Amino acid sequence: MFAGAGGLSEGFIRAGFxxxxxxxxxxDSCFTLKTRIAYHYLKDYNKLDKYLQYxxxxxxxxxxxxxxxxxxxxxxxxxEISDITIKNIFKKIRNELKRxxxxxxxxxxxxxxxxxxxxxxxxxxxxxxxxxxxRYFLYKHYGKFLKEFEPKFFVFxxxxxxxxxxxxxxxxxxxxxxxxxxxxxxxxxxxxxxxGVLQKRKRFIAFGYPxxxxxxxxxxxxxxxxxxxxxxxxxLPALNAGEILKRTPYLSEPSEYxxxxxxxxxxxxxxxxxxxxxxxxxxxxxxxxxEKWNEEKIRLKYTDLPDKDRTHNNISSFxxxxxxxNGEGTYSHTLVAHIAKDGHYYIHPDKKQLRSISVREAARxxxxxxxxxxxxxxxxxxxxxGNAVPPLISKxxxxxxxxxx
Length: 405
Fold this sequence. Notes:
Layout: H1 7-14, E1 22-24, H2 27-44, H3 48-55, H4 61-65, H5 70-73, E2 76-78, H6 86-99, E3 107-110, H7 119-125, H8 138-149, E4 153-158, H9 169-180, E5 183-191, E6 202-210, E7 244-249, H10 256-260, E8 269-274, H11 280-296, H12 359-365, H13 378-387, H14 391-404
Parallel strand pairs: 1-2, 3-4
Antiparallel strand pairs: 4-6, 5-6, 7-8
Helix pairs in contact: 1-14, 2-3
């Protein structure tokens, strides 16, 4: 549910799970999911050369999809989950279960859109308006799926702010609601940077299980690859602001980190190394921010800029709106969907390139493999990546659920 670009799903597939359906309202994300289904299908049948032809633009997307059984592509359900659509979504999933001769699903995974639960989102929407936002109650639709399909387990993923929303009342409501659906939940905030992802990304991960069973929250083993964020960038060609490399050879052999995490996984070229254009005013600020960070390890504050360089009147909050990725650090700051709107918060650390990070660099920060292709525009790709669960974290979660099952 709320499948997005499939980061959570990808980890489960790597751990040996078979997807029954993906439910997602965003059209571009659904195409991304279908393209990834095509990848896995062709890989399983030793026809990966056809997928590579697509990445090289030697065949069209329609020609790629024509190689895949229609019933597989139809398991991507492009619908918003609502009272109006939910019965039809259930029907489509039931049809797929019948086709593969299964009664129910083992696991349901997903996290409702988190804007109304995050502290930043709540401040933007307004405290009094949060409960008037339909997204606030999406967990109830999740509960309807639990009652319909009675999984052995479920994963509910969200922002840490869900624990404090509405003076901590929301999470109690969620716990009680899931209990009425027949499930208990146990959750913790996990930091991706402790588990092999080169990004400081904290997410609330809850495990749901039948209320009459026992379950202990897993003790995830921390992983340290002794890698730096620059290990994600160094084998990619240098770019100028606004430059587009749809496909390009690598500059060098992969680092140990890229190999161990399977971000580099056999291709001799990389796609979607695409960055957004920037005006001269912003590039001037980028240069200052990079110099201050690389030379002094100090973040540029908006108030550090001369009045003539400020284009916003707000000088009391969001002062770190221009932020350089810490290339020499062991992790980047959190990648969020706002990267789709501007790149100011994700400035590349190399002053010679003077730009924000590319689509592929963002995907690597999230631990997506290089053969993962994001459909839609550059803006859409950034949004899909920013909203995703890192596949490395997902695989860790999936392996623990497999052990429990």
